[in-house]
Amino acid sequence: MQETFTTQGGHRTAQTVRHTLRLIALVVREWLRLIVPLTCVGCDAPDTVLCDGCLMRMAPRIAAIPDTDFPIYHATLYEGSNRNVIARWKDHGREDASEPIRALAEIAGQNLVQRLRFTERSPRVIVVPMPSSRTATRERGFVPAEVIADGLTQGLRRGVNAPDAVQVMPGGLKVRAGKDDQSGLGRQTRRKNIRGKIRATDQLRAAVRTTDVIILADDVVTTGATIAEAARVLHPAQGTLVAGFALVATPKAKP
């Protein structure tokens, strides 16, 4: 019988290789910064990912989307430098903005606990990021709603009595092939367009049956039609609180 094993020297060699690769990555990153100067993702101010001014304009001020079937909240508006931040982060290669965006979502999560009023008990909470299509995920290299959901979860945990009862479930929702673009559509058209295009995994469905609060997290919301479709396919139990949250809201679409 042939035995396989790794020597202590082999472990040291592997650690050395990993350390060397990290150093190379650091050098390359700094080299790229010299060639392509770092600028604010919102206003192009130099030497920062997100300047103080743009950060303050994105500061969470929780408000509700009007005329929705269940509460859907947003932290700020999709306009001005906020629009630049989200658009460049999602679709123009500025993934370096993920950390400040995650931090903003965390602040929003703390505020959302107070708005949803479940601080007096210890509810079981599931935060579910809204899905991106496979094509969008491949092109971006990440799912924006998962960044939002991660920060939101951390903020919610800070505001409840039982932080471990707040869980995030990335990948629980999937987009079916053939989903059409929702841009520029009114509320009713959006609802018809998205109907049947989102599905929930068995794991998420099972978790939903035993939870008290479901929060559907997204990066941008207009009418809430897509979040509403996600809530519909989850079939939450009677008495379960369902809410939506997006970091930014666009101007309200036509009915």
Explain the overall architecture.
It comes from Populibacterium corticicola. This is ComF family protein. Belongs to the ComF/GntX family. By secondary structure, the chain is α/β, with parallel strands linked by helices. The protein has one domain (56-249): Rossmann fold (3-Layer(aba) Sandwich), CATH 3.40.50. It is 44% helix and 16% strand. It is built from nine helices and eight strands. The chain has helices at 8-35, 52-57, 80-91, 98-116, 134-140, 144-159, 187-194, 202-208, 225-234, and strands spanning 63-64, 72-77, 125-129, 166-168, 173-175, 198-200, 213-221, 241-249. The strands form two sheets. The chain has a six-stranded mixed sheet, sandwiched between helices. It has a two-stranded antiparallel ribbon with strand order 5-6. α9 links the parallel β7 and β8. α7 (187-194) packs across α9. It starts with 7 loop residues before the first helix and ends in a 6-residue tail after the last strand. The model is unreliable at 1-11 (pLDDT under 50).
